[in-house]
Amino acid sequence: MDGPSLIRDAVLVAIAYLSGSIPVGVLVAQASGGPDPRRIGSGRTGGTNALRALGRKWAAVVVAGDLAKGALPVLLARIVTNGDPAVEVACGFAAVVGASRSVFLGFGGGRGVGTGVGTMLVIQPLAVILATPVFVGAILLTRYVSLGSLLGSAAMFPAMVILWLVWSGAIPPAYLVYAAVGPVLIWIAHADNIERLIKGTERKFDLSLLSPGRTDHG
Description:
- The relative contact order is 0.14.
- The chain has 11 helices and no strands.
- It is globular.
- Helix 3 packs antiparallel against helix 4, helix 8 runs antiparallel to helix 10 and helix 9 packs antiparallel against helix 10.
- The chain has one domain.
- The protein is mainly α.
- It is 70% helix and 0% strand.
- The N and C termini lie far apart (52 Å).
């Protein structure tokens, strides 16, 4: 690889990290006049805590923003590099790290789940479709969003392997690596949740937050 290509790829990765770092939950709270999600519930800035702090409408905006800040830098990498899987994956990693270790929030942030899903929607959307029932099913059965996130992210790798087998190896190896290693970043960001799940002290999801009768903030 030549020098200009290395510089190009480094810039793309930096853009991906900055994109992932955008504190969508905090920005939406400020725009809506709602409470800062960092001072509510888990103190994280992702969709689940935004739901607690801001209600369904604004939480949906946060989720959409988190998906976009993962998807867009990977899509940009695909366009600029003419579809180099390794650079796409590097940008995916950078965006997820930015989501949980945001330079704009003193290297705090969310868990990286929404951003990670956003990256996968570009890298291989069918893997997301295959893993989604695991995510939703775990939450409905246990009411632990964290457990759903952990199991759903872990399901990405077998989902990708299934697609690789079906398509006779057409999935780039870099995508398989991302599906295997990317969830590790999600699990690291959930370290405190994992500890509470083991101890039986993890907070269960309040299904009433999804009730149509609940008033959104703002």
